[in-house]
Write a structure and sequence with these properties.
52% strand, globular, 6-stranded mixed β-sheet, 10 strands, mainly beta, 114 residues
């Protein structure tokens, strides 16, 4: 069956970095666009970044442009989110999702606090 397993979240100070990973299985990974979403407490879930199946130009929400980078390794069936210059407002649960058939991972908590 389809599985998306996120990892790499944690507690980091403002200005710090984290790299999230999402390991996928159960579907033809390289033919699916993949996205990272996040949901902060009391807020709606929002799209953070999307990357096409074979790479190409990623899409980012304005609030993370220049700080976050989405990438993928189709040989490892994994999508990544490199997050730099983290801010307290980046605190959220981060989810990976397929852009076809809407498969979701379980999420990983990112907390940015001093």
């Amino acid at each position: 069956q389809v599985q998306l397993v996120e990892s790499g979240g944690g507690l980091v100070q403002p200005g710090g970095s984290l790299r999230l990973s999402c390991a996928a299985s159960g579907f033809p990974f390289s033919s699916y666009a993949m996205s990272w979403y996040r949901q902060a407490p009391g807020k709606e879930r929002e799209l953070v970044a999307t990357i096409a199946g074979y790479g190409g130009i990623p899409h980012y929400v304005d609030s993370v442009k220049g700080r976050f980078t989405i990438s993928r390794d189709n040989a490892k069936n994994t999508v990544y989110l490199q997050m730099n210059s983290l801010k307290p407002e980046d605190t959220a649960i981060y989810y990976c999702k397929t852009e076809r058939k809407n498969y979701w991972g379980q999420g990983t908590q990112v907390t940015v606090s001093s």
